[in-house]
Structures are given as structure tokens and as C-alpha cells.
Amino acid sequence: MEEETNQRPAVGPVTQLLEKKQRQHQFHDYPDYFYAGFWIRFFAYLLDLACITALIGIIIGFPANLIGVSKSEELLSLYGFLSLLVYLAYFILLTKLNHGQTIGKMVFGIRVICFEEEELSWPTVLVREGACRFVLRGSIFMLGYLVTIFTPNKQHIGDYFSDTSVVTLNLLAAREGFVQK
């Protein structure tokens, strides 16, 4: 004789988690190994910081020396505020106008891509490079970049907010050459 059970199948959030499929991206859906890892992005960032330091020295530092303004790094000082503007403008303008690449990314052969747009839009770049870089530049908040190590698409906190990631251009070029043949 068969026993009837009054147990219901799992419903609600548990079912949704069990049935959750891998999120499909509208654009730029690559295998995991196409995404640039933490270290290459870190060294590209260091090169970008060297470029920004040179720009700040030329654009702000030299005139500040001429007129005798103190070079305080505090955000509320004139020098600190202008330095922040150069820092953010560097990342925003180069990323948008250079198809997802800053000088550091060009040297290391990596590029920012968006999963929902073919080309990076101004709102995407402003969120990723403006707002998120402003928040993540603080000493304790820089830990938000370490998330890159543990995520499948190698995304840091700013990438999650803007639905972007960074890919290696050599792998993209090899893929395009392989697909066309």
C-alpha cells in the first residue's frame, strides 16, 4: 500500500535559487579566462597613477609653486580638490573617449567592456569611473578592488554597479581571428 505524503515541493526563494540559471549578457559574453585578473589591473592602475601624478604636477603643481599655494592633499583644500578633479577626469575621459582604455590599460592590453551596451555610454562611465573611483580611492575602501579575485567575471565593486568588467585584448583578437577563419 502506498503512503501519501503531505509534503509540498520547495517553493519561493529556495526554488528560485535552485533553478537560477547563469545570467546571460546582452553584449560581450566571454568565457571566464577572457577577463583580466587582479594583478594586471593593479599594475595598469599603478601606471595610471604615475600618469596622473605627472599631470597634476604640470597642471596644478607648477602654477601652485609660482603663486605660493600650499600643496595640501586634503579634499577641502584647493590643491586637493583640483587634484581630485584631474584624477577623476583622467579616468572618465580616457575610458569614454578611448573605447574603455586608459594609458595603463593600453600598455597592459586590457579594456573595459559593458555587458549591456556595445560601446560604453556616458552614464556607465560616470558611474564606474566617477562615482565608484571617488568612493574606492579611500584607504579602507580600496578593499573593494580585492573582490576582483573572487568573482567569475573578475569584477570589483564599481564593476558591479555599472555592469562592466575588464577583458584581455589579446584573447579577444585571437578569438576574432579564429572565428573569421
From TrEMBL:
Membrane topology listed for this record: Multi-pass membrane protein
Phylogenetic placement of the source organism: Bacteria, Bacillati, Bacillota, Bacilli, Lactobacillales
Organism of origin: Enterococcus raffinosus ATCC 49464
Stretches assigned to the RDD domain: 35-162
Keyword Cell inner membrane annotated: no
Annotated signal sequence range: none
Membrane-traversing stretches: 42-64, 76-95
Origin superkingdom: Bacteria
Name recorded for this polypeptide: RDD domain-containing protein
InterPro entries: Pra-immunoreactive (IPR051791), RDD (IPR010432)
